[in-house]
Structure formats: structure tokens, C-alpha cells
Amino acid sequence: MIFNGMDFDTYFKNYPDENGYFGKYGGVYVSEELKAAMAEITEAYFTICKSRKFIAELRRIRKEFQGRPTPISHLERLSNKLGNVQLYVKREDLNHSGAHKLNHCMGEALLAKYMGKKKVIAETGAGQHGVALATAAAYFGLECDIYMGAVDIKKQAPNVARMKILGANVIEVTEGLQTLKEAVDAAFAAYAHEYKDAIYCIGSVLGPHPFPMMVRDFQHVVGEEAREQFLEMTGELPDTIVACVGGGSNAAGFFSGFLNDPVEIIGVEPLGRGEKLGDHAASLKYGTEGVMHGFNSIMLKDENGEPAPVYSVASGLDYPSSGPEHAFLQELGRVKYDVIGDDDSVDAFFELARMEGIIPAIESAHAVAYGIKLAKERGRGSVLINLSGRGDKDMDYVLENYGLR
Ligand SMILES: *Cc1c(COP(=O)(O)O)cnc(C)c1O
């Protein structure tokens, strides 16, 4: 399909290019030493991950350990209440460990095993990536160091407990705002010392090449399954698909199944408390081009050009940039990026629970809220929402800070 001059039949062959760019976004902006480590991972990825043995092993793990394919659910009661638009959710909340993140963690950890590495290192925000990676590390018998901001450690106590029970070392980061951005910095610094025995497993489609590509490819299974399942369920493609965007991994994998289809694609960023810098984390909507954490993308910067403080009720979404491929897809006009704030997300959190018996992750609730908004605005059509994770981790926080709605 040709869209705004871009041929999406050949998109995946051409992007990223051999230097890791999606248009002008992406690249490898790290020290010479880490460049060598990235080159090693890139080479391993292209040889190992394309091998029949690796693909067969990952496929078996997805089925027998993760519980894939995850289903699509038709939100019948909610759709009927809102009008004539039919809402559907792809149930990544039913993926083992409760979110889409295990999809790329099992891929990254399997790659680590094939590369002969002994340890995996990562950062985590909501704790979901840490739990997913600790799960993968336990499965493969790898050591696991997880860097986490002190603020997030307090907010996400159950996930911290999970990581520890799974045998991971949780390392508290007390710099700056003590959230995801600082955790990424600390994890990168550690990796620079340990890259001979360890592999960095980034939690989203972020960081230097090859991570944005690799994580998207490991998440592609979500979009691939969803497209096939939706066609089987309804005989058609969805009119619109929606996913929340923090770093952008659940969205990248989900969207990748539909880029070459006549389907409207919408990424939802967190508007937090409002439009003022520091009150939100809607980088694609309000940001400008810049380099951070090893890649060029669109980001929120303060007056000194440094990554700005960001905020969202959803720890997994409060990051001052998004993956380079999202910046590119926005520039191409293929994907539209819009925003939803804390309050609407909390409403959607309760609405999905009450109407459908599904408690969504507060991150995923942003996408659900957007789907609800579309259903109210439009008279007909279908909307498929990626329900990136389950909300057990958020229940106490939501009740304490917002009360029952
Ligand atoms: C981490 C997380 C997100 C945000 O990460 P992306 O890379 O943008 O997908 C969204 N939903 C859930 C449930 C998460 O755990």
C-alpha cells in the first residue's frame, strides 16, 4: 500500500536502514566502546535470530510458556452502552507475567543465551519490564540486574517483590527525579563496564540501534496475531487501531501488523495533568528533535536542551521521548499521535472493569479511554485496542489516590 509516497509493501526491508535509521530518527549515539557492543548485538541478531533453530525455539516458548496466542475480546456491553462503534481489545494482559513486555524479553534473553552471555541488565519504570526480564532470566538461568528509580520502587512494591522472588537484583537509583529516565542512565553506565559478559535488554523500542528494530520485531507477534484473529472474528479488518505509547513497544509491535493495510492507526500519549511542560509525557505531540539515551528522536527538553521532567499517572508511560520509528511514522503521517490525560484514563480503568470484567493496566487504560472517546464521537465502525497489560499492579495506587469511581 502506498501512503503519502511511502511504499509499505517494502517498508520493513528498508527501515531501519543499515545504520539503524528510520528516516532521520534512530542511529547509534554512544561511546566507541558501546558502539562495538551494539555492533556485536546487531550481528548476532541478524545471524542467530533469523536462524530456523532460534525461530522454532521462540515459537515453542511463546506457545508453551507464555500462553500465546492471546485472544481478542469483543467489548459488547461497553460498545452497546456507548453507541454503534464496536470496540475490541487484544488481550496482552493475558500474556504470562501480565503484559506485552515478556514478548521482547523472551526474545532478548534467548538471544543472550545463544550469544553465550551470563547476565541480563535492564532498567524498569512501572516494574513491568523488570518483572518480564526477571521471568525470562529465571527461565533461561541467566543472572539479572534491574535498575529502578526510588520513586517507582515505592509506587510499585508488588512488582519489586516479584522481581526479587524471581531471583533478580533490584538496584535502587536515587539520582534526579528517581524515575525511568534516571534508571536508564544508571543501567547504561553499568552495562558499559560489563558488556563482555552481559547483554543490555532495553524495555522498549528505544536506545541505540539495533534495539528499536529488535524489540519491534519481537513484538510483531502481537500485530500479526491480532490481524489474523480480527479477520477470522469479523471477516474484515478493523477501521481503527489504537495503542498507548510510552517508549512505544506495544504500539510498534501492534501497528507493524497493520501498516500495509487501509487501517487508521492512532498512538495515544499520556497528557498527565495537562499541557504544561512537566505535567505530561506527550513527547511526540509537544517535543522537538534531539538525541538522548543513544538515539535521535522527538523529545521533551528543558530550557538547557536536557531531557525535561515528565509526569503521568502511568509509570510505564512517563518517559521524555518515544522510539525513533514512532517519530518517523508521525512524520510520514501514517500514524496519528494524540493524547489522553490521567483523569480520563482512571475513568476508563473503572469503566472496563465494571462493564467487561477486565482490570486494565493504567497505561493500557489510556488506549481504552481513547477508544471510548472515538466511540462517543463516531456513529459507526470498529476499533481494535491493544490492551497492553493487566491492572493488578495499579489497583492500590488508583484506590488510594482517586477512590472508587
Ligand atoms: C511498559 C508498559 C507500557 C509502555 O511501554 P511501551 O513500550 O510504550 O509499550 C504500556 N503498557 C503496559 C502494561 C506496560 O507495562
Account of the 3D structure:
The chain has 405 residues and is α/β, with parallel strands linked by helices. The protein has two domains: 150 residues, Rossmann fold; 220 residues, Rossmann fold, CATH 3.40.50. The chain is 45% helix and 19% strand. The strands form five sheets. Strands 5-6-16-11-12-15 form a six-stranded mixed sheet, with helices on both faces. The chain has a four-stranded parallel sheet with strand order 9-8-7-10, with helices on both faces. The chain has a two-stranded antiparallel ribbon with strand order 1-2. Helix 3 crosses helix 5. The longest helix is centred in the middle third of the chain and has 24 residues. The structure holds pyridoxal-5'-phosphate (PLP). Pyridoxal-5'-phosphate binds next to helix 11 and helix 15.
What number is the mean pLDDT? 96
How many domains is the backbone divided into?
2
First-to-last CA distance: 44 Å
Structural class: alpha/beta
* Radius of gyration based on Cα positions: 19 Å
Looking across the biggest beta sheet, what order are the strands in? 5-6-16-11-12-15
Q: Report strand %.
A: 15-25%
Low-confidence spans: pLDDT under 50, at least 5 residues? none
**Count of extended strands:** 16
Which CATH first-tier class of the largest domain would you pick?
Alpha Beta
Report the CATH architecture of the largest domain.
Answer: 3-Layer(aba) Sandwich
CATH topology of the largest domain, what is it called?
Rossmann fold
Number of helical elements: 16
Distinct bound molecules: pyridoxal-5'-phosphate
How helical, in percent, are the residues? Answer: 40-55%
Given the C-alpha coordinates, what overall shape results? globular
Largest sheet, in brief, is: 6 strands, mixed
